[in-house]
Design brief:
eight-stranded mixed sheet, Rossmann fold, alpha/beta, seven-stranded mixed sheet, 375 residues
């Protein structure tokens, strides 16, 4: 199979779809890989590194899209990239379609077959291609929140860990999943007072058993949410509903009740954000103030640490890329039910229920389309 890797063009995005090591695994398996020139500079890899791994260096992204049977990326294709996709071409990347109707429309029009990293499921019900970036984002969220608390950045002027005889910051994490867990771990490590809000009593018990009395685990009810968020110095939104837009758990009124200069880091912004006051930002302009609260809503947080995040992502994705290349699209997805769940768009049809419902499209079972049982 001929696999193409274009340079990422989303603002402040420095990751790349394949590392040289992943390219070598593919070329040693008999496949061809094209890399857009200089696409790997963000992770410290130049064209020669990729050529040594067996890749062909291509000067334009148009040639990548024109020739490749499969496109491997990191971030969702921008609209001008969607226009370059070919009918029946495989696209393998993060998509986050629920809050992005224009991307849905463009992918449907392209006729491509788009598999979303964030939708691929493992046998145990986890999301193995989402997990590594959730780990990175969860850890970065605390760093970002701590920096935003500095007075020069518009924050309260409080040190997250405090010092002798001066209280540390109050950090509230909404959601105890992978992002939440990693945020908790880093915030505790920075000696903050940490509270986690989650709807699952079982998950709260698990977190308490891990972190002990260093963590205040609270059941997420309207009353508890209001009290904890109102008292917080940093709030981290770490909620995720697979395939769907993030629920707006934080109202504008609740944001208004927070301290002036407190910080809200919305890691759920890729799925539309979990506050009524959230809107996407970039690493170049990461924050804005709404209702007196400093909002950090960068939609590609791991892009700021591309060396770490590209390798973490490739560790998870390469087996799936190899499966598609070795077995072909139909066989790879038929052999793995969880991989099949990652299919979001198939030749002009929506194959993820949450997106179909969100945007008013007819839903098609992915396996039926793959097996030719649905038209």
């Amino acid at each position: 199979m001929l696999i193409g890797v274009p340079k990422e063009i989303k603002s402040d995005e420095y990751r790349i779809g394949l590392t040289p090591e992943s390219v070598e695994m593919l070329t040693q398996s008999g496949h061809e890989v094209m890399i857009e020139q200089n696409a790997g500079l963000g992770i410290g890899k130049d064209n020669k590194d990729y050529e040594d791994a067996g890749a062909e260096i291509v000067t334009t992204r148009e040639e990548i899209f024109q020739r490749a049977e499969m496109i491997v990326k990191v971030k969702e294709p921008q609209l001008d990239e969607c226009a370059l996709l070919r009918s029946d071409q495989i696209l393998f990347t993060y998509l986050h379609l629920a809050p992005d109707p224009e991307q849905v429309k463009a992918l449907l029009a392209s006729g491509c077959r788009a598999i979303a990293y964030e939708s691929v499921k493992a046998d145990d019900g986890s999301y193995p291609l989402l997990t590594p970036m959730s780990e990175v984002a969860g850890r970065m969220a605390v760093q970002a929140g701590a920096t935003c608390l500095e007075k020069a950045k518009g924050g309260l002027g409080r040190l997250i860990g405090g010092v002798t005889n001066v209280d540390p910051a109050e950090v509230v994490v909404i959601g105890g999943g992978v992002v939440g867990y990693n945020s908790i771990e880093i915030a505790i490590g920075m000696q903050a007072n940490v509270t986690v809000l989650d709807k699952s009593a079982e998950r709260l018990d698990q977190l308490e058993s891990i972190f002990g009395d260093k963590l205040n685990a609270v059941l997420a009810t309207d009353k508890n949410n209001h009290e904890c968020i109102k008292a917080a110095d940093i709030v981290i939104g770490a909620v995720y509903i697979p395939g769907a837009s993030a629920p707006k758990l934080i109202s504008r009124e609740l944001v208004k009740s927070m301290k002036d200069g407190s910080v809200f880091v919305d890691v759920a912004i890729d799925q539309g954000g979990c506050s009524e006051t959230s809107k996407p930002t970039t690493h170049s302009e990461p924050t804005y103030v709404e209702e007196g609260v400093l909002h950090y809503c960068v939609a590609n947080m791991p892009g700021a640490v591309p060396m770490t995040s590209t390798y973490a992502l490739n560790n998870a994705t390469i087996s799936y890329v190899l499966s598609l290349a070795n077995n072909g699209f139909n066989a790879a997805l038929t052999l793995d039910d969880g991989f099949c769940e990652g299919l979001n768009i198939h030749t002009g049809k929506v194959t993820i229920a949450a997106v179909a419902e969100e945007h008013g499209y007819e839903y098609h079972e992915p396996i039926d389309l793959i097996k030719g049982l649905s038209e």
